[in-house]
Design a protein that fits this description.
With 472 residues, the chain is of the alpha/beta class. It contains twelve helices and 23 strands.
Amino acid sequence: MADAPLLTALHAGADRVDAVTVDGRTCSYEELLGAAGAVARRVAGAPAFAVRATASLETVAAVVGGLLAGVPVVPLAPDAGAAESEHILRDSGAQLVPVDFAERADFPAGAHSAEAAHIAGAAPIAEPGHSAEPAAAGTPYGDAALVLYTSGTTGPPKGVLISRAAVAADLDALAQAWQWTADDTLVHGLPLFHVHGLVLGVLGALRTGSRLVHTGRPTPQAYAAAGGSLYFGVPTVWHRVARDEVAARALAGARLLVSGSAPLPAPVFRDLRALTGHRPVERYGMTETLITVSARAAGERRPGAVGSALPGIATRIADPVDGVGELQVQGPTLFDGYLGRPEATAASYTADGWFRTGDIASVDPDGTHRIVGRASTDLIKSGGYRIGAGEVENALLGHPAVREAAVVGAPHPDLGQEIVAYVVADGVSAAELTDFVAAQLSVHKRPRTVRFLAELPRNAMGKPQKRLLPPV
């Protein structure tokens, strides 16, 4: 689609009165273009701008407006504290722009790129992979459409430059993999400042033409009431859905359930299959790479597996031991670098041009990928064995008393590392859990220490934050 705009459906000329619903508010394509046009007029000529990315039509209009004007958008988490917000705004050089969804600017329906009239002085719509002037000229943003900040697990958050070309390539590959079309109704309640909720969950709908229902909060009841055909969720969401039998059974009429942003525990996979009749699709990606690996709508879906590489994506396992090693990737969905950090960008690639994901994985003979975890926290080397934390976590979650589990390696004078499990559970002892894991897996994979917590620390996407776990 080199000659088409990024948001293909939005510029197709056909209106849809219920195109986008966010937290109970609904708009048509025409209304969205009008509100986005007002944003584009306001930000035209800026090097970049930031928006407080609440779950709202205002956020959708802001991102679309940035794409229309060819100005990179910096989404800020609505609950970001003062220090985090100040860092992102200072690092990106962006100013927060308020958005009034009731404000309108005329936009010629069906026009795009060179055919488009200026929006009251704004820049023309940018083509995939080509930022409109003046945003690209003489700025550090290049062809970026979005500047998404990482979670900062290894230091202050870094700005990840995502181009239109990368977004278009990824959404088209996912549409093919998931058989995602304009006939779908996409439902999710994910944050609009991450790849999952924003790129896939908003821009994906505006590219494929599927109706979008953002539930505001991703509660089981809201998902059940939405009547969608395609659902996006993180493992925390799917765990809560699986625990609500009425809500889970209401999803039986859907076409596809997709899980991402963290590994889906095998027990949750099995519960969803039993209650909804669906085997969830799991996929894998990062902010820097977008989605690179996924199970297919028409293919096999297995617990603990994230499918095969998407079209155009190449993967390899570096320095494998027993088939397990760091996953490295190449392809058109990769980022253009870290904003203002050329050294960090260079360090993220190998000498022969492969992106280092930092994730430990294996690939089955049929091309199915399995993610073991992060190299820094999830690959445990104990007594000469290499043990994936996720395998032990899944075993623990198989115990009926365990609601949550996180496993790490801690220094041990004899073993090198010992397996430590943090669990949220009732009515079970540490010894019982250790014996349970030893019976399910190899004995050397049993936790040697079990800590009970009221809850696991998690980020906005529901990922356990292992660096925030209390010391052993």
